[in-house]
Recover the amino acids of this structure.
């Protein structure tokens, strides 16, 4: 009994929060102004609590397991959700169904927690669905916007499609190995043709979720249509969680088939980087722009997944996701404030922003430079370690392609920087007064961007887990 | 001496600038900070000479190492040899002069000085780093300040130039990154330059990695044909920006070509020396002839920089001890000279609001001080004995001549001939702008240099004279370090 509490600590606390919010909702009903800070405090408490009393072990007949590393991954995701509730406070306060929104978001987070901890394909699949379906509902939250409904529809259809493929892959895996328990599967994999086929289907589902090219087509429309709170959740939290479990699958389970998936990953990584970057070049809408840039970032994550040195690769991925979380959320945070207050979403509208909103401009610049991987921001370290991890296994031409992609990405990130700092605009965005939580969120992200790289013990800490 | 001071001082100055309340405070804090850095650099020079005088023959002095990323074996490993000391001194001179000539920047003063100091920080950090990763970090740190300085405070087609510069330098960085990772894995997971200098990397790998690293750093130092960002970048940047770009940033590349590419991969250097020589000879001649065609003063200096920096690369390609010493001298000399050149051009532009040679004339009467400085720097550029340019270029030629075969001789002669062309364009520019009748009435009421400009100019002229008249101290700094590099190339 005691073990149940310590091992499932994060999940139980999160479930507690969900029920608390549910009771508040069906009870008297609380105004958004009180509900939102309450949720923020609870999430922060959960984040802090995530660092204490961690143990390692297995539960439910090897269905569920947790380690210190997994606990840390959960903390990263929890931190991300906390930052979203801060950064998108403008929109969250106004939405008429805040309680439902929070319930859905936390349920999805709970699904991710289970997904990362799953040691069995059954619970993995259930958790994946729990992490996906609420997000589709969230994408539809701008009820009066047609685009939002369209995005949600696309999301649910493509999710359903990828789930189908995933189930097919799982059934083939079961057919060829006779087990759905991950440790057993690892023992019984021998790289037969059927297993390779099974792996390809299995892999495709992840490719959908991570929006690798050519499985990325749903991404941009969904990102554009959804409210920014959802877009940032999708692009950071969902992707981070899927990247974590994908990494576990590759580095822990499908190890006997390393030669097969390494080649697949290298090819998809190059495609994802190049296509994501090329499409990002021409985007005018800031949300679509960030969508394609996040596709390109996934290409870089794949780079580390092709590593020969699993330990180095997984450390680099987790470290990068942490940094990517700060950078991308900061960028989305600025976009959220501006869209919510002025309704402007185009990069051209950002011209002259520095004159009127210097604080937000610096945060945006820091975020974009971090995404581009330029020091002294943390993105530099994150990207470099991904490339280093990739270089330990792959060919040098692959590393060169990745490095050249950093130039393309710098070009389009500079386009936004140029609009903000250099271009003149007769009708710039008026000076906006930021709400306290938004400002706090931006400061936290900014601090994360500057410090996460220079505080090198973070990397070493992840490595030691 | 604690080398961390050299990073800490600019960082604290930059942070103090951010905290300043008004423009006057910003300027004075920056000036005080940069003067302090100059003091530190001089103190470093004295301390270094003292250590050498008491026969401390360690290759790197004042070494210190702090582990940063333990698991990847990356550490803050700092240390200086003669080359680093000379470069740090150069940086501190240019930083002070840059702060002084920017005294009248009114647009976003605080941000301007902050970025300027950040650029200086990157250069200091680069020159003292003995860990490739950290070196790369400091090299890249300057991308943001350069981009913003040109894009916000620049003139002309500034956005285009800023983009071009950032992307080309990023391209160079990409090549460096790949080469660097190659070294890391081949040498058994270490970025440490001192360790790498003791490991022998198989020749076939050196042949792959050397071009990556040399071209990568070559982009920074305007290696032909990767020089195209130089003219646009330099001419669009604000005065202090041009001074930093040409005076310091281009030297980062030259230093990297020597310290990283040539020193760590001697077999590669031997293999590709011919190509380096050909490319740099082309750069020297092409730069000189291209300068002849320019009408804009900043473009004149930008193209002549391509030509002059070519001498550094030529010296490296010649692979003799004297030539390498000369190459290093040329880096220092050109750094001071070109910074002064851009400063003077900035002073002229601030007054006449034109940089076109054809629209000026007879400025000597109105601005005797500025004109005199212009004269001095021009003569230095064309290599008049007694000024720094002569010493440096002469050393390169002498070193190059030590190679007895025909190819090296021809390259040397071709490079030396560029000096004639240099004389033509320099004397013509000076003659047209400073001498003769004043062609523009509006120029009759112009004032001469203000105190800050005089101070900056005198400081840099002092540097030129110190190298030109008594080159011995610089030679003492650079010669032993060049010998160390040559020893490795010769396989001793």
């Amino acid at each position: 009994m005691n073990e149940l509490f310590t091992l499932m600590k994060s999940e139980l606390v999160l479930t507690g929060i969900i029920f608390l919010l549910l009771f508040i909702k069906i009870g008297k009903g609380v105004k958004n102004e009180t509900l939102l800070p309450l949720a923020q405090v609870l999430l922060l408490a959960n984040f802090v609590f995530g660092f204490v009393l961690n143990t390692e072990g297995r539960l439910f007949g090897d269905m569920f397991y947790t380690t210190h590393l997994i606990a840390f991954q959960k903390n990263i995701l929890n931190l991300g959700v906390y930052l979203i509730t801060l950064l998108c406070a403008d929109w969250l306060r106004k939405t008429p169904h805040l309680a439902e929104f929070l319930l859905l978001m936390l349920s999805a987070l709970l699904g991710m927690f289970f997904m990362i901890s799953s040691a069995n394909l059954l619970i993995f699949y259930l958790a994946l669905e729990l992490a996906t379906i609420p997000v589709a509902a969230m994408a539809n939250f701008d009820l009066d916007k047609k685009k939002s409904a369209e995005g949600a529809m696309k999301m649910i259809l493509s999710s359903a499609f990828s789930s189908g493929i995933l189930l097919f892959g799982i059934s083939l895996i079961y057919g060829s190995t006779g087990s759905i328990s991950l440790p057993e599967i690892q023992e019984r994999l021998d790289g037969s043709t059927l297993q390779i086929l099974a792996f390809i289907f299995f892999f495709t589902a992840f490719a959908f979720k991570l929006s690798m090219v050519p499985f990325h087509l749903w991404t941009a429309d969904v990102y554009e249509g959804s409210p920014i709170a959802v877009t940032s959740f999708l692009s950071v939290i969902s992707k981070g969680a899927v990247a974590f479990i994908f990494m576990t699958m590759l580095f822990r389970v499908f190890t006997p088939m390393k030669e097969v998936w390494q080649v697949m990953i290298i090819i998809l990584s190059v495609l994802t980087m190049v296509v994501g970057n090329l499409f990002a070049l021409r985007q005018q809408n800031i949300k679509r722009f960030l969508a394609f840039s996040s596709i390109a970032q996934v290409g870089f994550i794949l780079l580390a997944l092709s590593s020969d040195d699993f330990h180095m690769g997984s450390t680099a991925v987790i470290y990068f996701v942490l940094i990517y979380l700060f950078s991308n959320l900061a960028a989305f945070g600025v976009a959220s404030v501006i869209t919510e207050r002025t309704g402007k979403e185009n990069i051209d509208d950002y011209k002259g922003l520095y004159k009127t909103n210097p604080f937000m401009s610096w945060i945006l610049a820091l975020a974009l430079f971090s995404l581009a991987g330029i020091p002294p921001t943390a993105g530099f370290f994150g990207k470099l370690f991904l490339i280093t991890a990739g270089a330990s296994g792959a060919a040098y031409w692959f590393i060169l392609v990745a490095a050249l992609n950093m130039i393309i990405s710098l070009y389009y990130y500079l386009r936004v920087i140029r609009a903000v700092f250099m271009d003149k605009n007769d009708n710039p965005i008026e000076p906006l007064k930021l709400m306290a939580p938004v400002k706090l969120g931006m400061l936290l992200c900014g601090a994360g961007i500057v410090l996460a790289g220079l505080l090198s013990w973070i990397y070493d800490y992840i490595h030691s887990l | 001496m604690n080398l961390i001071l050299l990073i800490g001082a600019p960082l604290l100055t930059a942070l103090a600038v951010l905290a300043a309340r008004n423009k006057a405070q910003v300027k004075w804090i920056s000036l005080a900070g940069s003067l302090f850095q100059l003091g530190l650099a001089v103190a470093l020079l004295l301390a270094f000479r003292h250590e050498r005088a008491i026969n401390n023959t360690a290759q790197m002095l004042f070494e210190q190492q702090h582990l940063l990323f333990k698991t990847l074996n990356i550490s803050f490993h700092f240390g200086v040899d003669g080359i680093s000391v000379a470069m740090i001194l150069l940086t501190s001179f240019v930083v002070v002069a840059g702060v002084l000539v920017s005294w009248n920047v009114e647009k976003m003063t605080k941000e301007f000085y902050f970025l300027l100091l950040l650029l200086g920080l990157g250069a200091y950090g680069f020159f003292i780093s003995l860990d490739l990763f950290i070196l790369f970090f400091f090299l890249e740190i300057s991308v943001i300040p350069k981009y913003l300085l040109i894009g916000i405070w620049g003139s002309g087609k500034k956005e285009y130039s800023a983009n071009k510069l950032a992307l080309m330098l990023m391209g160079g960085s990409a090549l460096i990154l790949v080469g660097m990772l190659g070294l890391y894995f081949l040498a058994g997971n270490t970025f440490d330059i001192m360790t790498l200098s003791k490991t022998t990397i198989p020749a076939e790998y050196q042949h792959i990695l050397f071009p990556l690293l040399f071209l990568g750093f070559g982009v920074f130092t305007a290696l032909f044909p990767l020089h195209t960002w130089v003219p646009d970048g330099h001419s669009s940047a604000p005065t202090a920006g041009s001074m930093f770009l040409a005076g310091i940033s281009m030297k980062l590349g030259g230093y990297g070509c020597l310290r990283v590419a040539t020193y760590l991969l001697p077999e590669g250097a031997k293999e590709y020396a011919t190509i380096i020589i050909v490319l740099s000879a082309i750069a020297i001649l092409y730069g000189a002839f291209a300068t002849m065609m320019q009408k804009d003063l900043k473009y004149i200096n930008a193209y002549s920089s391509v030509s002059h920096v070519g001498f550094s690369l030529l010296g490296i390609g010649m692979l003799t001890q004297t030539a390498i010493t000369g190459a290093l001298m040329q880096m220092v000399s050109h750094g001071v000279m070109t910074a002064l050149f851009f400063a003077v051009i900035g002073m002229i532009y601030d007054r006449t609001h034109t940089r076109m040679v054809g629209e000026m004339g007879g400025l000597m009467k109105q601005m005797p001080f500025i004109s005199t400085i212009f004269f001095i720097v021009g003569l230095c550029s064309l290599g008049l004995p007694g000024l720094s340019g002569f010493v440096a270029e002469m050393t390169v030629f002498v070193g190059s001549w030590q190679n007895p075969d025909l190819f090296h001789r021809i390259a040397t002669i071709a490079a030396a001939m560029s000096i004639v062309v240099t004389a033509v364009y320099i004397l013509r520019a000076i003659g047209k702008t400073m001498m003769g009748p004043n062609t523009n009435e509006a120029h009759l009421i112009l004032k001469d240099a203000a105190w800050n400009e005089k101070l900056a100019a005198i400081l840099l002229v002092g540097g030129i004279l110190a190298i030109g008249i008594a080159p011995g101290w610089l030679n003492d700094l650079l010669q032993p370090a060049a010998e160390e590099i040559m020893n490795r190339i010769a396989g001793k």
About this structure: The CA atoms of residues 154 and 218 of chain A lie 6 Å apart. Chain A has one domain: 2-464.
